[in-house]
């Protein structure tokens, strides 16, 4: 799973919740792109759908409608009050859903500086990104002693993927803003 920070600071004592980036739309896009590197309107359309789904999940997270912090609160209340932990918290699928192999956070800045943080699990990556007007700055970290991670290789694939996505977006005009 991927962890992306969604700010909930608009709420009293709000901090963050998790934007769950995996969706049926993103899965369809990734599966179709795995077939070939060709640029097509079909792939561009699938990318737009994935972007729209991600924007929807982001909106849910930042408006307090995600579930990760609610579950955290329930776990902490049960522990603090000696209540038997609900079964969902002992389910292996729940534990797996919290093993964030990719942990990301946006730190927007107008300056040519960047921040970074380490991965949150031993076999994961920490990715800090700064979207700029005409560029994106990324830092990618992983543990050197982990045989399944390689920050340099990940960065190269990330760059290649972002360039490919840019080409896809060029074949399909942007959807009109609803603001």
Q: Layout of SSEs?
A:
Blueprint: E1 2-7, E2 16-19, H1 24-33, H2 41-62, H3 68-80, H4 92-97, E3 102-106, E4 125-131, E5 136-141, H5 151-171
Helix pairs in contact: 1-2, 2-5
- Write the element-wise H/E pattern from the N-terminal end onward: EEHHHHEEEH
Low-confidence stretches: none
Distance between the ends: 31 Å
Task: Report Rg.
Answer: 18 Å
Q: Globular, elongated, flat, extended or rod-shaped: what is the shape?
A: globular
Characterize the quaternary organization of these chains: single chain
Mean pLDDT: 91
Helical stretch tally: 5
Strand order of the largest sheet: 2-1-3-4-5
Roughly what percent helix?
A: 40-55%
Care to count the β-strands? 5
Instruction: Tell me the β content.
Output: 15-25%
> Mind summarizing the main beta sheet?
5 strands, mixed
Structural class: alpha/beta
Fold and architecture overview:
The radius of gyration is 18 Å and the shape is globular. The two termini are 31 Å apart. It is 40% helix and 16% strand. The longest helix has 22 residues, at 41-62. It has 179 residues and is of the alpha/beta class. It has helices at 24-33, 41-62, 68-80, 92-97, 151-171; strands spanning 2-7, 16-19, 102-106, 125-131, 136-141. The protein contains five helices and five strands, in the order E-E-H-H-H-H-E-E-E-H.
């Amino acid at each position: 799973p991927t962890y992306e920070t969604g700010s909930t600071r608009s709420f009293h004592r709000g901090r963050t919740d998790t934007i769950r980036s995996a969706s049926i739309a993103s899965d369809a896009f990734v599966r179709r792109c795995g077939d070939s590197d060709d640029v097509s309107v079909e792939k561009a359309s699938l990318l737009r759908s994935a972007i729209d789904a991600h924007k929807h999940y982001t909106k849910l997270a930042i408006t307090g409608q995600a579930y990760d912090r609610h579950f955290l609160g329930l776990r902490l209340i049960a522990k603090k009050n000696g209540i038997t932990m609900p079964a969902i918290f002992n389910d292996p699928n729940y534990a797996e859903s919290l093993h964030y192999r990719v942990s990301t956070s946006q730190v927007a800045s107008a300056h040519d500086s960047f921040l970074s943080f380490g991965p949150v699990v031993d076999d994961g990556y920490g990715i800090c990104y700064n979207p700029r007007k005409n560029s994106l700055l990324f830092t990618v970290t992983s543990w050197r002693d982990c045989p399944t991670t390689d920050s340099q290789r990940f960065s190269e694939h990330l760059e290649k993927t972002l360039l490919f996505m840019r080409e896809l977006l060029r074949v399909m005009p942007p959807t009109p803003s609803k603001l």
